[in-house]
C-alpha cells in the first residue's frame, strides 16, 4: 500500500509524450523502488528469522560439537540425531512433562485470568490501581522471580510451607521442589502466576468491546448473572478466548527460564521438558546436533498450534 | 566448579549471536611484533583483582601490555566456542580443569611443551587434568579439592571430640548433631556437574569408577548418602542445593557438617562467630585412602595463528605458574599451590590449608580416565544420584538405569 502511494506521484510526473522505451524504463524504475522499500523488511526477516530456522534445521542433521567451532567441520549424519533423541530414555518423560506443563499452565492461567478480568470489569475504588498491580509478574526479570520463588517453595524454611503449617492446612512440610512427584506441580503453579497478567489483559480488553446495551436488553428479559455470562459474555468473547488459548500454548511450550531457575529440570528429571532438554543438550553438553533435533521437534509442535491459531482467526474474520 | 545456573544462562545468551560474530571475524591477536597479550578467565571479585595484579607483574617482566577479560562463570565455554569459530581466541585462556581436554580435542589449544613447560614438580593430578593424548595443554597454578567442614561448637555441644573418619562414624555423628532446625550433614546433590563433583569423594574412595557406575562399590557410596537423607540427618532439599547453598546452610547454623572446598575460606571468614575446622571426607572403612576430585583453573595458550604472540603467551603462562605466583594465587583463592614442594611449604605454615595439601596430593582429575567423554559420565552420575536421593529408585537400580541411558 505505502509503496504504491509513494511511487504514484513520481510516475505521474513523467512527461506523457515520452515514447514506449521510456515508459518501460519508468515501469522498471517503479519496480526497483518497490523492491527497495521492501528490502529492509526482507533483509530483516531473512537475517533474523529464516537464517536461524534454516540453520537449526540443518544442525539437526549434523554432528555439531565443540570441535565444529574450531574446525568448521560438521559431518552430515542424516537422521541419527533424531534417532538418538527419540530412542533416548528421556524422550517420553520430556514429552509427557511438556504436555502436562502446558495443559496445567494454560487451564490455570485462563480460568484465574478470566475470573479476574470479569471481576475488574466492575467499577470499584482502586480498581485501576489493582489491575495495574496485576501486571507485576510481567515486569519482574524472570531469573529474579524464579530465585525468589525458589526461596518461597523451600521445603524446610520456605515461607509457603511455614504459612501452611502455621495454619494447620498441611500435616508436614511439602517437598515442593525436592520431590519428583510434586516438583512439576510447583513449577506449573509458578508459571500460572506468571501467565495471569497476559490472560487478564487480553480478556479484559475483550470484555470492554462487548456493548453494554446487550446486557441492558438481556436484563429486561431476565438474563442476569450466570445467564448473562453464558448467553452474552461467552459468545462475544469466543474469538478473544481462542486467541488467548492458542498464543498461551505456543508461549508455554517454549518456557525455559522459569524451569531452569526453579529446578533445572530436576529432581530426577521430573520437570525436564522438551525446551529444557534441548537447552541442556546444546549449552551444557555442547551437543548442538541433538539439541537442534529436540528444538526442531518443539518447533513443529508449536507450528501446529500456530496453524490452529491462523485457522481460528480466519474463521472469526469470516464470521 | 564454581559454576552457577545464571552463568549458564549468560552463556546461552553469549552463544546465540554466534552467527553474527562469525561474520565479523577479526584478526586474532596483534600482528607483527607482539607487544600486547589478551588474557581471558572467569574470575570474579575479589579474585579478579588479584589475578589482574599478577597478570600485570608478569606483563612487566616480559615487557608487554596485558589486557584481561573476566567472563562470568559457566559463560566462559560458550564464549570460547564463539571465539574459536570467529578466530578471535585470546592469547592466554584460563579453563576450568575438566574442560581442558574437551577444548584441546577441538584443536583450539597449543601444546605447552612448545614453550618449554613440562609440568615437572606439579601434583600428578594437575598434569593429568591438563593433558590430552600425552601432550600438556593446560597448567594450573593453584588447585583445590573437597573435604568436610564441621562446626566445632556444635561438636562440643553434642559431646563429639574428633571429626568422623568412617561412614559409620559420620552417620552416627550426623544423627547426634541433628536437632530441631539443624541438619547434621549437608552436601550438594543437585542435577548438575556440581552434584557429581560432590559425589566423587564417596564413589572414588570406595573403589567406584566413572567408566561403569553400575557396580556394588558405587552403589554402596550412593546408599550411604541415601541413608543420611532417610535418617533425616540431611535435608531432602540437597537435590536442589548448589555448593553455595550448602555453604549458606552451614553459615546460618543449619548444618553441622558440610562437604565443601577451600575456596569458601573467604566467605567463612565473614562469620567470626562461626567456629569450624576441616578434615578429609570420611571413607567407608578406616583403611581406605580418601580420594577426592581435583579442582582448579588451568592456563592454556590457544592457537591464534601468530607464532610470536603464542611464544610470548607461553612465557606468560610460565610466569603465572611459577612458585611465587602459585603462592599468591593460592593465598587469594584459598587454594593449594599446584607444585608439590610449594604446597608442602605452605601447608607447614597454614593449619587451615594443611588438610587440603594431603587431599590434593591424592586427588584425581575428573578427566583422567575418560578424557573428553567425562561430561557424559558426569551426567549419568548425577542422574543416578537424583533418582536414588528422591526415592524414585534404589541406588542399584538408579545406577543401572543411568549407566544404560543414552
List keywords for this structure.
heterodimer; A: 319 residues; mainly alpha; MetI-like fold; B: D-Maltodextrin-Binding Protein, domain 2; D-Maltodextrin-Binding Protein, domain 2; 2 domains; seven-stranded mixed β-sheet; 18 helices; disordered N terminus
Question: Could you provide a short overview of the structure?
Answer:
The complex is a heterodimer of chains A (319) and B (406). Chain A has 319 residues and is an all-alpha fold. Chain A contains 15 helices and no strands.
Question: What is this structure's SSE topology?
Answer:
The complex is a heterodimer of chains A (319) and B (406).
Chain A: H1 2-13, H2 20-59, H3 66-71, H4 80-87, H5 91-121, H6 127-133, H7 136-139, H8 142-152, H9 159-166, H10 183-208, H11 212-220, H12 225-253, H13 257-262, H14 274-283, H15 288-318
Chain B: H1 5-15, H2 18-23, E1 36-41, H3 47-62, E2 65-70, H4 75-85, E3 92-96, H5 100-105, H6 124-130, E4 131-132, E5 135-136, E6 138-139, E7 142-144, E8 147-151, H7 152-157, H8 167-177, E9 183-186, H9 193-205, H10 216-230, H11 243-251, E10 255-260, H12 265-269, E11 276-279, E12 295-300, H13 307-320, H14 323-333, E13 336-337, H15 340-349, H16 354-361, H17 374-389, H18 395-404
Parallel strand pairs in B: 1-2, 1-3, 9-10
Antiparallel strand pairs in B: 3-12, 4-5, 6-12, 7-12, 7-13, 8-10, 8-11
Walkthrough of the structure:
The complex is a heterodimer of chains A (319) and B (406). Chain A has 319 residues and is an all-alpha fold. Helices cover 75% and strands 0% of the residues of chain A. Chain A folds into 2 domains: 58 residues, no CATH class; 239 residues, MetI-like (MetI-like fold), CATH 1.10.3720.10. Chain A contains 15 helices and no strands. In chain A, helix 1 runs antiparallel to helix 2. The relative contact order of chain A is 0.11. By secondary structure, chain B is of the alpha+beta class. Chain B folds into 2 domains: 174 residues, Periplasmic binding protein-like II (D-Maltodextrin-Binding Protein, domain 2), CATH 3.40.190.10; 181 residues, D-Maltodextrin-Binding Protein, domain 2 (3-Layer(aba) Sandwich). In chain B, the strands form 3 sheets. In chain B, strands 1, 2, 3, 6, 7, 12 and 13 form a 7-stranded mixed beta sheet that branches. Chain B has a 4-stranded mixed beta sheet with strand order 9-10-8-11. In chain B, strands 4-5 form a two-stranded antiparallel ribbon. In chain B, strand 1, helix 3 and strand 2 form a beta-alpha-beta unit. The two termini of chain B are 25 Å apart. The N terminus of chain B is likely disordered. Classes of the chains: A mainly alpha (319), B alpha+beta (406). Chains A and B meet through helix 2, helix 3, helix 13 and helix 14 of A and helix 1, helix 4, helix 5 and helix 17 of B.
